[in-house]
Automatic annotation (TrEMBL):
The lineage of its organism: Bacteria, Pseudomonadati, Bacteroidota, Sphingobacteriia, Sphingobacteriales. This is Lipoprotein. It comes from the Bacteria. It comes from Parapedobacter defluvii.
């Protein structure tokens, strides 16, 4: 599938999701469940964008924090291909993070407050990028 075809396909999916989210938002505004569902759908869209590119050369992959825990710090990390529209992708990740931050404040969300360390590296497994955290014992 060519890059142009992928982009057209993803743009179509994005447009449909916006329309669906707008319709659902009209009927479900004001509940934590409804807002959580919207966040989940945006996260799924971000995952789909990242998964649209096969991981066959790890040097073409990066990662970025995504989301925000109620106590602060990233909720997770996501790998993405440097071959995609990285500015658009990172803007969408930032939008998700801002919306999750607002959700946490609005609904007084709680979490484990554990700091999530960034991945050490990315590996390609079966065509998919996998984030790896190397564990090293440190003497203190």
């Amino acid at each position: 599938m060519s890059t142009t075809t992928k982009l057209a396909f993803l743009t179509g999916i994005f447009t449909v999701l916006i329309v669906v989210m707008a319709c659902e938002k009209q009927s479900m505004i004001g509940s934590p469940e409804a807002e959580s569902l919207l966040l989940e759908r945006l996260h799924d869209e971000i995952d789909s964008l990242a998964a649209a590119y096969p991981c066959d050369d790890v040097t073409n992959w990066r990662f970025t924090p995504i989301g925000e825990k109620p106590c602060g710090g990233p909720a997770g990390y996501i790998a993405y291909s440097a071959e995609m529209d990285t500015a658009g992708f990172l803007n969408k990740v930032e939008l998700y993070t801002e919306r999750q931050r607002a959700y946490n404040i609005k609904w007084n969300a709680v979490s484990d407050c554990m700091f999530l360390t960034p991945p050490s590296r990315i590996v390609c497994e079966e065509g998919k990028a996998k984030l790896v955290r190397d564990t090293e014992a440190t003497a203190e």
